[in-house]
Amino acid sequence: LHALVNNAGISPKLKDGNSRMNSIDTPMHVWRDVFQVNFFAPIMLARGLFKELASAKGSIVNVTSIAGTRVHPFAGTAYATSKAALGSLTREMAHDFGPHGIRVNAIAPGEIDTAILSPGTEKIVETIPLRRLGTTAEVADIIFFLCSQQASYVTGSEIHINGGQHV
To answer: What SS3 class is residue 159?
Structure first.
């Protein structure tokens, strides 16, 4: 095993299917579910595959989100805070896994053209400096780079893939 990409994530919405869940009204069971998938699963997988990754001098890429660093109109509070926590965990893991030859980085996608785009995304695109959505290929290319030997001295980083949306 040369690489682990922690890409699974959930972002529950209100019953209307579009509205974000805020910090006041989000039920505690939703917080637990979101953190289980978005935060605990990545460290559980990394720890469970530690020997294999160390043997291969492998790489871990955690997928965070632009929502982890700013309030996002579609991502709920539980999702956003779980992704912020995953960004911090990435740095901690880089520190802890590094002496064993395992590099740990994160990517923080913004608006990417997928089948699960929220209604209203077109309004956000108007505010992105590059004035377009990112592609899944652009995200995959950065993940591939971080897993490759071209990134052999990169660890503890979080790369924004959002057309400048974070600036």
So the answer is: strand
Nearest by Cα to 116 from 167, 166, 79, 81: 79
Q: What's residue 17's pLDDT?
A: 63
> Of the candidates 97, 99, 72, 74, which has an alpha carbon nearest to the alpha carbon of residue 84?
72
CATH code of the domain occupying 3-161? 3.40.50.720
Cβ–Cβ < 8 Å for 57, 98? no
The residues near 72 (Cβ < 8 Å, ≥ 6 apart) are 20, 65, 66, 80
Give me 105's structure tokens: 């980085």
- Domain-wise residue ranges, the chain: 3-161
Sheet with 3-6: list strands edge to edge: 3-6, 59-63, 103-109, 158-161
Instruction: Compute mean pLDDT per 10 residues along the chain, 167 residues long, and list them.
Output: 96 77 92 98 99 99 90 84 98 99 97 81 88 95 98 98 89
The pLDDT value recorded for residue 140 is 98
Enumerate the active-site residues. Answer: 79
